[in-house]
Design a protein that fits this description.
The chain is an alpha+beta fold. The protein is 35% helix and 19% strand. The chain is built from 10 helices and 15 strands. Strands 2-1-14-13-12-11 form a 6-stranded antiparallel sheet, sandwiched between helices. It has a 3-stranded mixed sheet with strand order 7-6-15, with no helix packed on it. A two-stranded antiparallel ribbon has the order 3-4. α1 runs antiparallel to α10 (326-342) and α2 runs parallel beside α4 (151-164). The chain is globular.
């Protein structure tokens, strides 16, 4: 009798879930299909419990040649790269090779500025160091302010090279292989074959091929990946397979003082390498990414094991990032509303 009673309940739950999924699909499709002079050009993936629920491709890998994007098209993922760097740094912590609060002069004795005797790995991880150039003083007293930084993560990559005895590119390659990510690369590892071309809208509204795609430091913003690989990464990273539990807890904890007035989201709090958002009692972990010609988003919701990943290779209106990330933030809103309904 209990099995007979269970069947209708199961069927009702399945129908409700499918109904919710159809609504989400239609909402995302509606945003993407709206006629505009600035159409979305990229790949979107939404998954729960590791299972893909929505995966669609729009536009071109090469606009001039009209070569369509594919599901395994590769994109430069901007600041999403930082979480890879964080894992490689904190693995050195787990091995006992570094201390987060020891001045970095210990690891990089070649640094000549006096801040090397004050700045720690923790400061670099949290963007609270004030370094803008290696040959210049810091712009504020170390540890007193937050200033989003690329050079800080480059220094982190140099530290792990010293403590591990391996190149940062090799370390990242090994990490991706461990996770089963076959299409994710440090730019110096020339194994990528499906990299989409990046494009930027100029001041006259014309879309131009971007020549400075790899302008950022690799450790801060120039890794190459796909939506499917980032989905694999989320399931590997947030499940605690890569770091000790105590160490992973630090990644997901709002760090004191690591607060930014984000150009898209306003006041935003950071852990190590990712944002930690608890608005509306929904825990949202992850990061947006911007590299010349590429606009990215990768967020994970632990309670429902949900990933939402959006990779685009046309950057519109880069003087106003809220407009540049329009499609990404609208899709994020849809997913967050769905998660509210699951509670």
């Amino acid at each position: 009798m209990k099995y007979i009673l269970f069947l209708p309940i199961f069927l009702i739950a399945t129908i409700v879930t499918l109904g919710q999924q159809n609504i989400l699909d239609k909402q995302i499709d509606s945003i993407i299909s709206t006629k505009t002079t600035k159409p979305f050009n990229g790949v979107i993936l939404f998954s729960q419990n590791g299972q893909t629920k929505y995966s669609k491709i729009f536009g071109y890998s090469d606009i001039d040649k009209k070569e369509p994007l594919k599901l395994n098209s590769q994109f430069v993922i901007g600041s999403i790269s930082k979480q890879f760097t964080v894992v490689l740094v904190l693995r050195e912590l787990d091995k006992g090779n570094i201390d987060l609060y020891t001045p970095i002069k210990k690891y990089l004795p070649e640094l000549t500025q006096s801040w090397a005797d004050t700045v720690t790995i923790h400061h670099l991880l949290t963007h609270m160091h004030g370094i803008t150039r290696l040959d210049k003083p810091t712009t504020f007293k170390v540890g007193t302010q937050y200033s989003y930084s690329q050079i800080g993560y480059d220094l982190l990559s140099k530290i792990v090279e010293k403590t591990s005895g391996k190149s940062f590119a090799e370390l990242s390659k090994n990490l991706f292989e461990e996770c089963g990510m076959k299409n994710t690369f440090h730019p110096d590892i020339k194994g990528y074959n499906n990299l989409a071309k990046g494009y930027t809208e100029n001041e006259n509204g014309k879309i131009e091929f971007e020549t400075e795609t790899f302008k950022n430091y690799a450790a801060a913003g120039s890794f190459i990946s796909t939506v499917e690989d980032l989905n694999i990464w989320n399931n590997c990273f947030y499940s605690g397979k890569l770091l000790k539990r105590k160490t992973m807890k630090m990644v997901e904890t709002k760090q004191n003082g690591a607060v930014r007035d984000h150009p898209i989201f306003g006041i935003t709090e950071y852990g190590y390498g990712i944002t930690v958002d608890t608005k509306e009692n929904i825990l949202q972990l992850g990061q947006t990414g911007f590299a010349p010609g590429f606009i990215s988003m990768n967020y994970y919701f632990p309670k429902t094991k949900t990933s939402v990943i959006v990779l685009e290779n046309v950057a519109y209106e880069t003087d106003d990032l809220k407009k540049t990330f329009y499609y990404h933030t609208e899709i994020l809103k849809i997913v967050r509303n769905e998660i509210k309904n699951y509670r």
